[in-house]
Amino acid sequence: MPTEDLRAIELLRRVPYGRVATSMRALPFLAVARHIVVQGRVLLRMHAGFNHHQACHGSVVAYGADNFHVPVPGDETLWAVQCTGTAEIFEPATAELELFGRGPHYVGGELFDPVYLRIEPQFVTAHTLNSAPERRREHAL
To answer: Are 70 and 13 spatial neighbours (Cβ–Cβ below 8 Å)?
Structure first.
């Protein structure tokens, strides 16, 4: 994987959540997912109750995350990462489950039922926006 791609994937480690995009019944949709990065792969945890994982499984998806809402003292660089690849449902190992941490109790009023997807990134992009500290909130909106 090229150095720029590795840097973008490493940025994902800095935030816990992002959005997965694909289509469902010929319509585009975005779904929130918890992610971790393991050996260059992006692993997602989603709520099974919405069946979004079924639309993603075996399909090319885009996954994106950013730090627009997470202030990091001393680092005024805003970034957004998007990776594209095929998503596959998988069963995480114990060590991967530990990296995900505890899930929410409820999602949309339902008990949280976790399901896991693995994305092997084929295309990765990172975009940054540097700004003065006093303008950070202004650019993040």
So the answer is: no
Given a contact cutoff of 8 angstroms between Cβ atoms, the answer to whether 87 and 59 are in contact is yes
- For the 3-140 domain, the top CATH level (class) is mainly beta
The number of residues making up the chain comes to 141
Place of tokens 């973008």: 8
Radius of gyration of the chain (CA): 16
Q: From the CB of residue 20, how many other CB atoms can be counted at a distance below 10 Å? A: 25
Residue by residue, pLDDT tens for the chain (141 residues) are 788 888 999 999 999 999 999 998 889 999 999 999 999 999 999 999 999 999 999 999 999 999 988 666 666 788 999 999 999 999 999 999 999 999 999 999 999 999 999 999 999 999 988 765 554 455 544
For the entire predicted model, the pTM comes to: 0.87
Q: Are 30 and 19 in contact (CB under 8 A)?
A: yes
